Amino acid sequence: MPDSFPSPPGFSSVDEYLSSLAEFYLRPFVQSLAGELHIINFFLTSPDLFEDTLPEEWVKFFDQAEFDDVLDFLIYFRKSPSLEPPDSLSVFLSTVQSLSIDRNRSDKTIRSKPIPSLHTSALSVGMSPKKIHECEYLSSVISDVCSRIGTPHVIDLGSGKGYLSRTLAHEYNCSVVAVETVESRTKGAARLDSLYDRKGGKRKKAKAEMGTGSLIHVEKFVDSGDLTDIVEQANLIGHKMVLAGLHTCGNLSHHALKSLFDTQEVHAVAVVGCCYNLMTEKDSEDDVVGYPMSRKLQSYSIPLPTTARMLACQAPATWTRETRESFFTRHFYRALLQLIFHDRGLLGQVQNIGSLRKQWYSSFYTYCRGACKRAVGAYDADSDASSENPFDISEEVSTEYHDRLLSKKRRLCILWTLMACTVGPLTEALIHLDRYYFLKENGASEVHVSVVFDQVISARNLVVVGVKG
Ligand SMILES: C[S@@+](CC[C@H](N)C(=O)[O-])C[C@H]1O[C@@H](n2cnc3c(N)ncnc32)[C@H](O)[C@@H]1O
Q1: Is 78 a member of any domain?
Q2: Ligand 1 mean position to 22 CA, how many Å?
């Protein structure tokens, strides 16, 4: 079967697609959206990052148009009759569209006809509707790959609570080795295995077709593509295996793909990646883990800094009004707090804050309390008992900042949406092109990148399949 990549229409080859994408992505304006500007610093420039970054005619248009119409235009490229965007913006967005992978298109070279619904099966215990959908579709692809290379043996890398492993073992009778680094998840998976057995799931094995339908769990932190010790532990030296992964986060996807060449027993891989922000960028020639993996992408020297990789984790088309508002509030609060830190001379002393639990976002004052507990880092309040702790932000101060800058929240939301809708899909395409070329350059006999899930249900929906040459 010829290799396949879901390039957008109009390109005669994957090389041609990459070349056009790289040319656009490396333009200074796209580069500024992709990494040089940080939404967290929105209020640190004057008048703000929005005016600092965007062309004047875009600023004017974004400031005047209805907020919801602007979001519709950016996210779906849908134009309300009253909307009159500047031509330069329309051309920019249509170029992004023409370079983005169509995430709704399903490629027939990869089978995606799922098993009968898991909803009614004992296997669905503990699964969300999203997980059911993912397991239904990906297990079908993996069982096909198993049949093609003639093996029932699967390693499920980053198996979490073992939902995919259990589906493969009990619905397709594969022999699965589930590998997971977090102890509580492996234990949770074992509990779900027993629950499945108690619910009578085991009886299904009577129809055993492909293999023994077994499942073992291995607790291990994987840090390379050499999985020989796992194969050994499972007593499978010399057996053909398929390396599978459902949302192998960050570099785990890289280890998975490398296992095709670094582990003798692995004859095929089928992985869906996620959390690109956790990937690393190559820091030297000797770095065999980070992005870019392929010589092809290396030759283009396209940086993918954290901002770009974080944007690639977004899926604006699947945002609901509620999720959208929650993102916007998070970014607005974090940018406001950054301004307070700046005004208090604290920027160098702040620890990474990350995401807080939902209840901390009920007001900006509440957020300041939650975030400062994390941000305080090395600051030692006792050593400076004479003065006030600068990480104490009173309700009065937080309200003053919030109310003074609230009118700019709209600009911050529009800039974030613009970045997510443009840099996001293009970065995700580059990451998958890198994976595609890596497999080809190393001699895989077949490489396919394909849409495997409904994007509205599961946003990270591209599976990378490679078969050993
Ligand atoms: C996004 S979760 C997906 C879990 C599971 N496949 C699912 O879809 O329900 C990724 C899992 O990979 C595990 N993981 C991440 N890096 C790993 C590594 N280097 N070695 C082993 N497991 C890892 C995480 O602990 C986590 O459970």
Answers
A1: no
A2: 31
Q: Is the CB of 185 under 6 A from ligand 1?
A: yes
339 lines ligand 1 (CB under 6 A): no
Name the residue range of residue 275's domain.
Answer: 118-314+424-467
Q: Among 176, 179, 181, which is best to mutate for testing ligand 1, by the most ligand atoms less than 8 A from CB?
A: 181
pLDDT in tens, 100-151: 998 876 666 565 567 667 877 888 888 999 999 999 999 999 999 999 999 9
169 and 247 co-located in one domain? yes
Task: Report whether residue 163 contacts ligand 1, using a CB cutoff of 6 Å.
Answer: yes
What pLDDT was estimated at residue 107? 60
| One domain, residues 331 and 220 | no
pLDDT value at residue 103:
83
Q: Whose CA is nearest to atom 1 of ligand 1?
A: 247
Q: Which strands sit side by side in the sheet containing 462-467, from one edge to the other?
A: 215-219, 175-180, 153-157, 241-249, 266-274, 462-467, 446-451
Q: Assess whether 365 and 433 both reside in one domain.
A: no
Domain annotation covers residue 16: no
Query: Is the separation of the CB atoms in 464 and 449 below 8 Å?
Result: yes
Q: 């944007």: which residue's tokens? A: 311
If we measure between CA atoms, which residue out of 285, 308, 306 comes closest to residue 295?
285
Angle between helices 409-441 and 56-64 (to 10 degrees): 120
Q: For 157-210, what is each residue's pLDDT tens digit? A: 999 999 999 999 999 999 999 999 999 999 999 999 998 888 766 555 545 556
Residue 241's CATH number = 3.40.50.150
If you take atom 24 of ligand 1, which residue's CA is the nearest one?
A: 158
Q: Which of 218, 222, 252 to mutate to test the pocket of ligand 1 (most atoms within 8 A of CB)?
A: 252
Same domain, 300 and 336: no
323-343 residue pLDDT tens: 999 999 999 999 999 999 999
Please tell me if the CB atom of residue 180 comes closer than 6 angstroms to any atom of ligand 1: yes
Mean pLDDT of the chain: 91
Co-location of 300 and 348 in the same domain: no
The span from the CA of 384 to the CA of 376, in Å, is 14
